[in-house]
Amino acid sequence: MTLKNMLMWDETLFRDPDIFEIDYIPDQFNYREGQMRELAFLLRPGIKGSRPLNALLKGTPGTGKTTSVRKIFSDIRDIPSKMIPIHINCQVENSRFMILSQIYRQIKGHNPSAAGNSYKRVLDSIAEILLAEDRVLLVALDDANYLLFENELNKVLYLLLRSHETYPGTRIGVMVIISDMDVDLSRELDVRVTSVFSPTEVYFPPYSHDETFQILKERVMQGLYPGVLSEALLEVVVDHTLRTGDMRVGIDMIKRATMNAEKDAMREISQEHIHEAYKISRFLHLKYSVLSLRREEKELLKILIELSQSDEQLTSGEVYLIVKKKLKLGYTVYYEALRKLDNLRLINLQFRDGRGRTRLINLRYDPDKIKLYL
Ligand SMILES: Nc1ncnc2c1ncn2[C@@H]1O[C@H](COP(=O)(O)OP(=O)(O)OP(=O)(O)O)[C@@H](O)[C@H]1O
Ligand SMILES: [Mg+2]
């Protein structure tokens, strides 16, 4: 194929490229009927104007938690209801003040006034609206594991769930969504919070082989032209997806493999195109985790990468001596940052037998790969 031919080749293999975008909400959403029914049941009191029951949604990444909530929320908006559903992405809104401001913004369509520069004031305004308009508030804290640092989850839940004490007559329900199966909320939450937060747990198990196959096949039929991806190669994508457990990896692989085929001006995806796509798609998790870090956490990660070039085993105590000098962080802040990197599965923190509190630190990814996103 000549360069001229390649430039002229403007055929696309995508019937609809949006189908593979990260925020696309599929029309076809199977295998989650049980969870959706359970959620609808918990929220039903809110439609009529009472407080909805609280829920805890748990399941590993890419098992359909966010999509389920978004679908239910759009159904609620379509029917007459006293309940205002608000979805919060806690990777972005990760403090009490930011969350309350976002709630206000979603209710009113604009930022809280300049006077609302304290979380208390913003909460006052929210309560005022709820009482004046006789509305119920439903807040979904998505990816709430990002609030476990600096105790933010306790602070936010305390305010929302005890609002009726400060503002009699307000009704607020909460959905907490968590994808880290190691998190034990009963250990993380204060008794002041657990006494008002007894959520019903809704579990999202990983998809089986057949479910993964059907979900991805559905996307392929909607998003690509017939014959672009064979069933045999779709099986290869399914295998990779199951290995990571995250549906997003499969969806992203199909998109990239199709682009690779287009680049080669082929009408059909080859094994090689899939193989190349997987090399990138399998780092999806790494990419989003690194992007969600705060500045000092990124700086810490850079130092860990630098130090990992030597053959010495990194320990939390020795790394701290360097961090203290370079970043001027106190020990508590440093340790919280380490815990967060561990929680996000970027590093592995491990106790060493018989040596007090110091921990061994290992990176979970190839340092060169991490650097790409820092
Ligand atoms: N049952 C399903 N049918 C079709 N698509 C699905 C299904 N489940 C998940 N997906 C797709 O997989 C991707 C991940 O789903 P979603 O974002 O809902 O997962 P999640 O459980 O919220 O993951 P995380 O914990 O990482 O936030 C989305 O693109 C979604 O459209
Ligand atoms: Mg999600």
UniProtKB/TrEMBL annotation:
Coiled-coil region list: none
Origin superkingdom: Archaea
InterPro entries from the UniProt entry: AAA_16, Cdc6_C, Cdc6_lid, ORC1/CDC6, Orc1/Cdc6_arc, P-loop_NTPase, WH-like_DNA-bd_sf, WH_DNA-bd_sf
UniProt keyword annotation of ATP-binding present: yes
Pfam families, per the entry: AAA_16, Cdc6_lid
Record keyword Cell division present: yes
One GO MF term attached to the UniProt entry: ATP binding
Domain Cdc6 C-terminal as annotated: residue spans: 300-374
Binding site for ATP: T63, G64, K65, T66, T67, Y207, R219
Keywords: ATP-binding, Cell cycle, Cell division, DNA replication, Nucleotide-binding
TM stretches of this protein: none
GO terms under biological process: cell division; DNA replication
Family according to the record: Belongs to the CDC6/cdc18 family.
Role of this protein: Involved in regulation of DNA replication.
Protein name: ORC1-type DNA replication protein
Organism: Methanospirillum stamsii
Gene name, Swiss-Prot/TrEMBL: cdc6
